[in-house]
Structures are given as structure tokens and as C-alpha cells.
Amino acid sequence: MLSHRPFQPKDSLFLLTGLVLFCIPILASYNASSQLDVIRQQGELRIVTRLSPASYFLTDQGPGGFEYELSKAYADHLGVNIAITLADDMEQIYKELRLHNSHLAAAGLTPTPERRQHFTFSDNYLQSRPLLIYRTGDGGPVPRSLAEVNLERLAVIAGSSHEEQLKALLPDDNAWQSVNNLEMVDLLEQVHSGELDYTLVDSTEFDANRAFFPRLQVAFPLTETQPLAWMLKKSGDGSLKNSINRFLALPETQALIARLAKTYYEQDRRLNLVDNLTFRQHLRTRLPELRPWFEEAEAETGIDWKLLAAIGYQESHWNPRAVSPTGVRGVMMLTRHTAREMGVKKRTDAEQSILGGARYFKKLHSRLPERIEEPDRTWLALAAYNVGRGHLEDARILTQRTGQDPDRWADVAEQLPKLSQAKWYKTVRHGYARGREPVVYVRNIRRYLEQLAWESRFQAVQNTPVPQASEAVGPPARLPDTL
Length: 483
Fold this sequence. Notes:
By secondary structure, the chain is of the alpha/beta class. The protein has 20 helices and 14 strands. It folds into 3 domains: 37-126 and 229-265 and 465-473, 3-Layer(aba) Sandwich (D-Maltodextrin-Binding Protein, domain 2), CATH 3.40.190.10; 130-223, D-Maltodextrin-Binding Protein, domain 2 (3-Layer(aba) Sandwich); 273-458, Lysozyme (Orthogonal Bundle), CATH 1.10.530. The strands form 3 sheets. Strands 1, 4, 5, 6, 7, 13 and 14 form a 7-stranded mixed sheet that branches. Strands 10-9-11-8-12 form a 5-stranded mixed sheet. A hairpin with a 2-residue loop joins strand 2 and strand 3.
């Protein structure tokens, strides 16, 4: 017969001691790894963002966007892969962070008081201002304050900083619309089409997208300049936040941010309203038929099809039957001599003209001295396409005589107009040329190229489905030493 002894207090102590000894290795293992250590061990940095021509988009050439490139650079800095999750709305971004599905949100976010209650933020990397946007040409007065705005015709994205700002400024009036499942670009489109009268957009985002909406203008800034930062879930160790802040403070990161801001946000060379409207009309009516041949020319020559299309637009506005008073013809406006040299039998045949123009541009591009780097090499080749290689070389000689750099487009552009002045053109080999024309020519093509690049981003955003799961993007790569 088994005997039962009473449970003694020392038995409890024995069991507790055993439990503690059992848990010590587990607790030690758990505490040893910070959030940053875990990311490095797992080899993946998980980012949540939103589709936008500035933040993130996906083309045939791969992903792009300010937020993507900056967060990819940080992942490269850590030596890990990056995984992108695309959120439908702000609530999904919050959920991704709360559930630890993503390590950080990179979506042009403002650290508002309400957000700071639930999340933490990195140091600032850009400054922006919330702008009230309206459509020109409707005949009404331009509002100068919220008191002059018909709030029922104003919409903002639900959960956005703009909604929070409106609630703070107008606590007793919520007549505006807060919309879900729409992107900022969708609201801009609705204002541009007249479905809405107003929306609120950060200045950085508006600068990145205003090329798509030429009738939209700024009425007034809603508040003072505000910072943009990455948003993270509040964490005890702070290792990820500290690492991000150290990365953002690096000189090479600051240089990268400046370059990305210029690429995605700055539009110093915008077309005027009439040119923009005409260009966008031709994008819809003329470019689709010609684009396959521009892409075929890229495949043959290696020249970006968008650059070739920009040349074609400057030359003929994508009109295959265009003829100039001087006798040049076709999409790429080839002379008889150039057409014959490039194997073009019929200059008004769009396919032949585009392929011939691409071959000719590649020839000019390749004949420049090897030491000339991009993008100056391309701008100089464009000038040669317009004015001729001989006159370009004359301008480069004049540039060298002044002590400037003959391999730098900005310096050569200053000297080209001198080729129409006898005191200068008599001193060079090829004589007189209308030197101002290639300067305008290159400037216009750069504008059209910029428009085409933004249009590609815009279309990529419109055509990219939002996946339900994270999508790994590319292997890690080292942050370049020179940016």
C-alpha cells in the first residue's frame, strides 16, 4: 500500500528553484538578441509603404520611389534583404506595425501628436508642408483660408495627418470627407476632373505629382513646415530606431537623400500649362502607336526608349508625316543624308525613322571623348543631334578657351550662343551656327524626358495590384561610396 506524505513548504521551494533553473537559459537567450540583432539574424528588413509615384512603384525595370530607395539603402547598410508590404490605407499601416508584421513604415509620414501616442519615429529626413489644392479655370475666387473653403467639397485620406490637422483646426466642423481605400493620387485626379473642389497634399507629394495634373494649383499652406520620418512600433530596446538615426546622419546618406529628393520631388523644369496639356494629350493619342518602335530601338541600341521618345516629341510632336521648311522629315526629323547613312529608305515611315534616329544618336553619343561622363555625355550628344557634331566641337573649343570645362554641358551651353556672333564663329573651324537653338533643344528634351519618367511612375502605380502578403525585393547590395 502506497503511503502519502503531506506536501511540505520545502517542496514548493524545490519546484520553484527547478523552474527558475529551467527558464534561465531561455530568458538569457531571449534577452541576448535586440530587435536589430534579430533583423540581422533573419536577414530581412520588413517595410510597409503605399503605392505612390514618389514613395513606391514597380515597373518592368524594377521597383523605385523615394521611400523604397532610401529604405533599400538602409537594408543594404545592414547587409540584409528588404521585403515590401503595400498597404491599402493608413489603418493597415498601423496594423502592420502593431502586429510586428513590418519593422517600420516608410510612406512620407508626419509625426503627429496622435501618432506619437502609439508609435515612435526616426529622426527627420525631409521637411514638407500640407497644401490646400484646387483646380484652376473654374472661375471662382482662390481661397486664402479654410473660412473661404466649401468643406463639403474637400476630401482627405482617412487616418492621414491631414485629417488630424483638420480636426485640430476645425474641432466643431467636420463637414469634409474622409475617404478610405484611395491614394493621394486618386484625390488629385478627382480635383483635376472636378469631382472635388479641394484636397490636402504634402508639398513633397504635390511636387512629385503635379506634372500629371497641370490644372491643379496651391491655394495656401494649411500649417507651417512639418517633418517627415519613418514610423516604428514602440520598442523597449530602441536598437532599430538608434540604428536608423545613425544611418540617416551619415554623410553618404544625406547625399543620397538630396539626390532622391531632386529625382522624385523637385520639378525645376516643369512645362507651362499649355505645353503640359498638349503633351499629355499626345501621350494618349500618339505615343501608344509609336511606343513599340521606340522600345524596339532601345533593344537594338541600348538607348532608353523614353529618351528616344523625348527626342521624337521635340522633333515632330510624334507626327510621322511631319516636314520642316528645311526638308527634314518624319518622327525623328532626319535629313536625306542622315537617313541614307542610317539605312532609312522612307523617312515618313515611323518605324524606319525611329530606328534611324536611334542609330544616329548612338553614333554621336559614342564618338564623344570617352572621358565625358553621364549625364553630360547625353546632353552633349543631344546638342550634336541638333546642331551637328562640328559646331558642338567648336563650342567646346570656345569653352576651353574661357577656362571652363568642355566636357560639362552647363559650361558648353554658355558658349554655344556665341556661334551666331562673327567675333566668335570666325575663330573656329565650322563657322556660323544658330547656337541658341541646341541649348533650347536640350532643355526641352530634358523636360519631356522628365515628364515621360513621371508618367511611367504614375502608370506603374495605377497598374500595380496591392499584394496581400509581403514581397521580397532583391538581394542586399552595398551602399555606393559615391552618390
